[in-house]
Batch of 4 targets.
Target 1
Amino acid sequence: MKALCWEGVGKLKVRDVPEPRVRAAGDIIVRVRASSVCGSDLHLINGFIPAMREGDILGHEFTGEVVEVGPGVRRLAVGDRVVVGSVVACGGCWYCRTEQYSLCDNSNPQPVFAEKLWGHSPAGIVGYSHAAGGYSGSHAEYVRVPFGDVGAFKVPDGVPDDAVVFASDAMPTGWMAADFCGLTGGEVVAVWGAGGVGQMAARAAQLLGAERVIMVDRLPERLAVAADRLGVETVNYADTDVLEALREMTAGRGPDACIDAVGMESHDVGPGYAYDKAKQTARLQTDRPTCVRQAIMAARKGGTVSIVGVYAGLVDKFPLGAAMNKALVLRMGQMHAQRYIPMLLDRLAAGEIDPGYLATHPLPLDQGARGYEIFEKKEDGCLRTVLHPA
Amino acid sequence: MRSNATRLALVGAATVTAVGVGRAVTRRRRRHQPQREDGWYVVRRAVTVDRPVAAVISFWTERERLDRALAEWATLEQIDGNRWRCVSRDPDTGATEWRAEITVTGPGRLRWQVTGGPEQQGTVELVPAPQGRGTEIRAELRYRSGPLRRALGLAAGDEPDLRLRDTLRRVKSLIECGQLIDTRRDPSGRSPAQERRTDEIRQRLTTGGRA
Ligand SMILES: NC(=O)c1ccc[n+]([C@@H]2O[C@H](COP(=O)([O-])OP(=O)(O)OC[C@H]3O[C@@H](n4cnc5c(N)ncnc54)[C@H](O)[C@@H]3O)[C@@H](O)[C@H]2O)c1
Ligand SMILES: [Zn+2]
Ligand SMILES: [Zn+2]
């Protein structure tokens, strides 16, 4: 079959690879119908997340049709249309049983790296380096999904592939980001990053009761789409002092909650950025934390900073003093896909969330490398490239 | 605890543990010296399984499930009421590597001793975890390792301590979700040579390159 493989930092290529087979009783094989790019892939492609190997198949946000089930699978049958959470979860450990799926104890068979770097290993993730289990990704004609009963969900009739595909990752991530904010109604929420994740976080915050959502980015097209689709307010950090603007927009209080949907390749203007970039390149810090610094400075006293942008290692100049003295709540994590997907599918079917507009660039799998280039450079108003194998 | 069930259970847990570390003891790599007591090297490791002690026991008492769990590792025979014999096989060649005798020493406790192989003995104990968090499986491994053996077969990942941790992790996974995840032969665009190098890295990410 054809698959989009990583061939070294910044290099992707479509190759012929063997087809996956059922290997364990709980496995299912999915014929991929749509597989999206995600901001996390950029961290992998650019070599900021370790233990990528030449030939690894990328892709972790996908939907398709079940073509084979292992003997232990109960909830699914051949022919079902499913969407699959990016995070692999066993369903049987303490973390899974308390719905903290991205912390699953048993789904990363190669936990040593994470244990050394972080003390413990979180769950494995599909198509996400050997440090996250070495699973083959979904930018392929077929993909093996372990623990199919836990991770794959039937798609409601009438929801198109290029919308439901985001129930795999961007939607649950955005939802979790807003969930972390502990909204009770009427809050002001600021979201850094107007990519797929940030936009889904903004929508989730609205549905969970936020009265105002303010999005921060530098790409005018993305901010315009967010304003148009979601009715959010926007701040462009390229020409505006973000902290000043947020303070004014909230009459001096600061946002009740600040969401980081940017992560470790955060961009910035000014000399601070050159400093962070140089340090990251020299591996003196692994991550560029511009946006999380801002979020901490911006949040109101006693507010929440919710981090779903991905970080891998160390950051520099982390304003811990601000967080401590303002008594902030910091929440963060990889998303618990399986906890949120069923609820999100209901909301999708009911039209409460319509993520289809994120699929700005549908392309055949063959053009995967180009698809990532468009996504990375945010050419032509690209929000997400969605690859179609067939 | 029903005594027979308890016995089988512990035998199972100990067998997996003994088999997992036994090979490591023969081919261990000396990087750092573990603790020494009375001339033995001593390694203690534990894992928490999210099931009550009784459930951990009943997992091992189902003979069929146990045999499946041990499949490519070992066979188990009962000698008498309290003693079992475990024969470890090399998964690649099927040849016998070593034998161990396992003795139940009390409720939730047992001991094993390798016979006709590397000098090794150990204990396994099942203890309820606090807060209803399941069962702590606590294993202690004691081994001696002569200078000659040390010099031979020093494959990466064969540090007994690391192997013990890896083994306990396997036991936990089998009980909690009925399988061990393995991504080794999943599709990739690698050549056979690249795949072999990647397997070495997988091995290091699985059992650790150094202690
Ligand atoms: N926690 C999870 O489970 C999870 C899941 C999916 C994605 N993610 C992470 O979420 C992040 C966003 O993903 P995405 O797919 O939306 O990525 P994306 O690349 O499409 O979007 C990132 C956006 O951030 C903007 N940005 C960069 N620097 C900024 C700054 N200093 N301030 C404000 N905006 C800035 C960029 O212009 C871009 O629009 C990534 O870090 C990704 O790894 C996390
Ligand atoms: Zn993602
Ligand atoms: Zn789990």
Target 2
Amino acid sequence: MGCSSKEEIENVYTPVQVSLKIPEIFQQKLIAPIIPTNNPLTEEGIALGKKLFFDPILSKDNTQSCASCHNPKKAFTNNTRFSEGVDGKLGTRNSMPLFNLAWNFDERFMWDGKDFSIEHQAFSPVRNPIEMHSNWKNVAEKLQEHTEYPTLFQQAFGTSKIDSTHVTKAIAQFERTLISGSSKFDQYLLGKTELTPEELNGFNVFMDEARGDCFHCHGSDNNPLWTDNQFHNNGLDETFNDLGLGAVTGDPNDNGKFKSPSLRNLAFTAPYMHDGRFTTLDEVINHYSEGLKQSLTIDPLMKKVNQGGVQLSDKDKADLKTFLLSLSDNNFINNPDFQQ
Amino acid sequence: MKKIILSIFSLVILSCSSDNDEPIKEISVKLKFTQNWDGTIIERSDLENTEFTNKTGSKLTISRLRYLISRVSLVNGASDTTKFDSYKLVDINKPDNLTLALPEKISEGSYKLLFTFGFIDKDNISSAYTDLNSVDWNVPDMMGGGYHFMQLDGQYKDTLGIKNPYNFHAVRAYNSEKDSIFDTSISIETGSILLKNNATIEIKMNAAGWFKSPNDWNLNEKSVDLMGDFEAQKDISENGKSGVFSLGTITQ
């Protein structure tokens, strides 16, 4: 009888519902984050997702976890241009930082938007041959045989039978809690701190249509995500080795388009662009200022492409960089909830 | 061309009274936004593909076309106005989202439809609309603040045939030197429409109209950095007032 009553207790365990801690500035300016009704956030689900995120058990030879390429100290990316998978093969894209994913309202993830929804995205690294190169059957078996996981799945999802759906749901719950909203600039917007004259001028360069004109794609004081999460060709190449969105949609007009990354946390996320081609922010700024390349699908907002770019003065360049760095959020990378 | 089949469920309200008065029908109304270039329909598939020619002879393609409609109201024969407290960001890249269902029902009858292109000053408040902030529709405060009215972006061929970008962005006119604003939103009124059943009213926007009458627009002279250009914004607004918007078909 002891056995069955234990089972009964497990079956009635209800996970504790939690809501996201939405930063004040997001609350003021943005619509609600996206939380799918079939995967509500719970304490147990988030804790399980976190454990899975940091656990190399998800990879073929138990050597690589999500965190290998998505390090909390680096705003959940890494600092190499490309990342090595378990087989030592290099990918062709720069790892992406992970934060504010629940505010990607179109829910299109990856540089080229190929994965719809956070849950769905989490399926791919496990079986990707240049990443964790495992398969879900093996992973589910390993987790099922583990001493702790079956109970944790029971508590989070009411079933100790482990499958890819619940693994990805748990990881997605954890990923939704990765919220970055307390940079120096956020504090400034809340009236809690002042910007230096350089940072202020840099912000004006960013916002001025006749100077940087960055805000049309990268957010603003009124869109504190600092991205539009849309796909653009920002003038990196004349011809494309990597078709980006075009390979996903099959539409040649989408070739060379990639998702605008958020400009939060740039202090931790070098190198930059989908292929990590720029090691410093100076290189990025020089690109927009005088390094633009004309191509078939270039975004019209790269309006000075025929002059090479927006031609910023040295002072404006330096100030723009200072401003960009004010969007970096030390509280985010040091948040104890996000460390292994 | 994609045909959208609208299923219209008409709600018949039956009167319970013993005499045979015809009940007044309550109907719901949707606005459907379509875009054209002097009559040729512009759809998502035309973006970055189809070449159009503007009044001054520049060949151009369109990459992005989004615009804002606000203050929709219906005025009946007795001049009673029903105001709908909503606005709509039309984005031709989102073909499934080109209709605005008016939030309240109205009685059947004859109406004029009124709406505003953009926001009038009173509504054009920086950061006030979280859904518009979330899609980066804001105008920086240094350029007068508030929201965009339209983003029409693309490429045109200059006099040498070389491809050049244009950013035809309509916003409230702002003179930064004098710190003065000028309301460039456009109020539009249709002729009388007889609404007898649940109806979908087509609002047509002729994109070619932005480039002509009264101000024939030469992209070789002005194509980018228009947001902070007070005179350009006034010109855009004047062009918008003459025949850009018109009433299309009414399905009911």
Target 3
Amino acid sequence: MQLDSLYQEIILDHYRTPHHAGLADPYDVEVHHVNPSCGDEVTLRVELDGDTVKGVTHDSVGCSISQAATSVMSDLVIGKPVSEGMATYEKFLELMQGRGNVEPDEEVLEDGVAFAGVAQFPARVKCALLGWSAWRDATAQALATQGAANEGVKNA
Amino acid sequence: MTTTRTFSSPLDLQSVRADFPILSRELAGGFPLVYLDSANSSQKPRQVVQAIEDHYLQHNANVARAMHQLGAEATAAYEGGRDKVAAFIGAPNRDEIVFTKNASEALNLAAHTLGAALKPGDVVVVSEMEHHSNIVPWQLACERTGATLKWFGVTEDGRLDLSNIEELLTENTKVVALTWVSNALGTINPITEIATKAHAVGATVVVDASQAVPQFPVDVSTLGADILVFTGHKVVGPTGIGVLWGRYELLAELPPFLGGGEMIEVVRMTGSTYAPPPARFEAGTPPIAQAVGLGAAVDYLSGIGMDKVAAHEHAIVEYALEGLKTVPGLTLLGPTDAKDHGGAISFALDGVHPHDVSTVLDTRGIAVRAGHHCARPVHERFGMQSSTRASFYLYTTPEEIDALVDGLGFVRSFFKVD
Ligand SMILES: Cc1ncc(COP(=O)(O)O)c(C=O)c1O
């Protein structure tokens, strides 16, 4: 098994100095996700500006893979339209589930390509997806509240 | 690394290991398997697998309800498993052995049936070092009945904190449910001492012996427990079977747990009456082949001698504790000496998350467990989210401990934490 392909320098860098770490105000929605089988936890805040991801901050306890993946995920979605973030997630998921047979798209995944090696460690795939699942959940909730508020405006 | 530490075990490890073909496996990269995850699930000797195979290939049928010759053979084989388990743990009466799916189901059985008599004001006592399987069923029972859950804390050195035992054990205390050996800390708890005090206030004592029965001789007739549970797959037996032992008079008073075939006496549309124990608690087709396998497993362990297994575990734990203490930046979770220490050692390594420790060890063929080991509260108690755990059994060699200690050195250099 290729240790160096799993623990790419980029991953270790993000792990040592995670981007967007530390919960910040203001935010629309905060979620707390756990990986019950191993105990990794992430608290994540999302702030939307219309359809754009304005801010993501997080506070997580977990392994190098989960922490680095959350850091890279934040970089990838901040400042982008929600739909683009979701599309990036699909690409990342495809890479993770590809058992090493998927060629990562660096245009889309940027530092996320460093996680290609994780796909060969099935037990660790969940680690790489934890931050993403928190972001998707928080964003969906934020959109739903926005939708409800807009309804309210229309109804008023 | 060559070792100067001494090791002496009463077991002939080479011949024991020959019974476990999996232990000779080579893993990716040509590394020999170093299996240090037996507290999670033990490996199986050939004798157990063969007994299961022989049952399926020669004697398979349903039990009790099948009236033909094979039915009789299968019933004899299943009930034979019960006899063997009863003898293995010193149960005075074979009807005190109830087969379940695993230890978790056995604990749920205990919590449901004992829980039926709970009411607001009653207290159930557990401890902070329990496996989730001995916490959640009691939380649910308390939610259902309005009873209150209380717990023994854990001291800084990983022992049960008995300093407030008088407050915890009062006339309101109906159930005390404790683990004998902690799967996370390795601590061996003074069950008999606590049971005596619990009985003095009229409480029923439930013991989670999932990590005890595999490791040392158990005699329920003198232990002081009213109910004791363990799980087949940790005693070199198959998955899919657990054991609940209960004092017969207690079992006879308890209501059923799951309803279905075999647990009844007479079923009428207006109501049913229930079979006496153990059948009352064994609804549906039981784990037949698993009972055969479990019987073979306890025969295997008895053949070797549980006193020798215990002596070996002790020697390995002592050796491992010494070895782990040489690893810089390693903090042991729980007792740091081998006295009253079961065969599992959890630890933290400065600067490296347990998942990363275990993945790096895994690439060298070393299988350990990383996470909270289904004991999140005790990790929280020590301000940790997870840990790495190495656990041992009758087939663990000192060379495997050396490989672990070397492997941890490699982990540290890989993550540059020097
Ligand atoms: C102390 C303890 N209790 C209960 C269990 C649960 O056993 P099972 O998963 O077989 O139900 C385990 C093992 O995981 C354990 O170590």
Target 4
Amino acid sequence: MIENKSQKRKNAWIAFLCVLAFLALVFCLDQWIKPTDKLGMLLIVLQKGSVYALAAVSMNLLNGYTGLFSLGHAGFMLLGAYTYAIFTIPDKSRDAVYQYFDAAIRFSIPEKLSQHMGGFGTALGVFIALVLAGLVAALMAWLIGLPVLRLKSDYLAIATLGFAEIIRAVFQWSKLGPITNGSNLLKNFARASKFKLEIAGTKLSLSTFVPVLIATVSITLIVLIVNSTYGRAFKAIRDDEVAAEAMGINLAKHKMIAFVTSSFFAGVAGATLAMVLSIAQANNFKSAMTYEILLMVVLGGIGSITGSVIGSLLFVAASEWWLRGLDSGKFLGIEAPNIFRNGFRLVVFSVIIMIVVLFFREGIMGEKELPDLFRKKKKDPAKEAQS
Amino acid sequence: MSEQKTKLLVEHVTMQFGGVVAVNDLSMEVREGEIVAIIGPNGAGKTTAFNVITGVYAPTNGRVSFDGECVVENYPHGKMKKSYLGANGDMFHEIKEPTPDKLTALGMARTFQNIRLWKSMTVFDNILIAKHMKRSSNLFSAAFRFNSAEEARHRAEVMELLRVVGLEDEKDDLATSLPYGKQRRLEIARALATEPTLLLLDEPAAGMNPQETGDLTQFIAQIRKDFNVTILLIEHHMDLVMDISDRIYVLDFGRLIAHGTPDEIQRNEKVIDAYLGVVEDAED
Ligand SMILES: Nc1ncnc2c1ncn2[C@@H]1O[C@H](COP(=O)(O)OP(=O)(O)O)[C@@H](O)[C@H]1O
Ligand SMILES: [Mg+2]
């Protein structure tokens, strides 16, 4: 929807203030709640939820806004996770991590920078490693896109699905062990649980704040892209490729931009996931992860960034927290260890998702965004025309 | 007229789909500032000719030149070499198949027979997107709004276009919520936003009543003047065609059966047999 300028500016302010308030709240929660508390689950949901929100939004950029169907998200996240992990393992832990191999890459960016700049250097190093993670994923997307994006769009789904499967196998291949540690996991790299800020002797925890901040900044960047002239071109391609091309939009080029950008942020999401989980292992990045993210996008509403964020947070909260009891014998005060046991949660979860998809055809948000909710209901010209 | 420069030159274009020859050895010329019409019965190959000229299809054989430069060329090669059914198969030797956006960048813009507006977008955005090709920003400068001056200029140009085509009041409506006639106007405005020198209109008056067709006739004459464009159009409404065309090409079964001024065409026996007679009957 188009608004006049002042309306647009107002929307931007509303969104900005909401985001700022949310970040402040998360920072406080990080101090108030200990991971061992009863509410400690909330922190985990926020950490994982923000990672998945970023993954879902970056997928939405491609699937929802450009109309390209890629199924390689888990693969790009894997690349991001490994790049981040490899370049942030401190020297002294490296040999312990690469137990069976002689580590080939012996370079920790945060460590190198902290030698010169102290704590700020560590933070900067983590930031650089994150960007590097995104760039590696983006480079891979460019290589895949080069031959595939010229073909009909169905090929992208097939090619990316294949890529995700192959990359997972390649990263576990023992010949590459000196780099990837083979099928063993990577650990001891810069991880969220260690992130602290020390001000005047008091230690402030940043273990939830940092992942949430990374996701927030990345999603903001995606929003800026979507609302730019490039975002409009993506939507034009989605709505009608033939018309877009006739109006001077180079299809191959713009599809490539969307694919590479989406993969960049998938790489950052993968890196942040490793940061949150404290480990990186290729086998965790199965195609099931891609489908989960796709489900979050669909639940939230294809073509709505707010929807993707809400969808992922709800998804993670339900599966990690609210429905946990279904797996462990006790749910809502009912004790029934015979029914509520391992796996039952997934059954209930699937039913809920089916219901949501059936009754909210367009997802929770449809194509609406956060600022739309604060506006008085206006007559929808599309509905008017139909009646 | 004859001193004017050639805007568009189509030479021996043949377009073959499998065993169907949709356009057969078509040659035509459009000169700068002219309004030229292509007429002919349904299925004659008019839209296909447009698609070849604008780069949607690479022709099986033939050449298209724009502003004196060859922009599209092909000859029957590969598998087509054996199955080619058209004429002049040994005339051309180059392969030049640009994507449509390249030709739009050179100054061609078109509308579609079955309106192709972007459905989920407003009238304003539909035109604004056509300005994307005029941008100088890359992804980063656009994302961080370093292009805001350019963006503001484009938005002003879109408003100006909306005023010219009389769609100011509908600018925030969804494009597809407009009545049919206005959707056609919007498509023309969108094409004009790419700042073309040659405008190709595929049945712009389709589905319009005589009143609307009359308005459109004036509108087309006006945009030729105001925007300084050459116009090639496909149309079935004979009053419109005869009223504003400088010259007319008549297609039947993919072949050119006549060309000339409106007067010449109206008197041409072949054209009356193949097409005009049918149109008269249909309009009764
Ligand atoms: N992409 C295509 N594939 C196969 N046949 C086509 C294609 N496009 C057009 N044709 C055929 O070409 C012929 C001419 O069609 P068209 O150019 O649309 O006619 P017109 O615009 O004059 O009504 C028709 O017989 C049509 O079926
Ligand atoms: Mg046609």
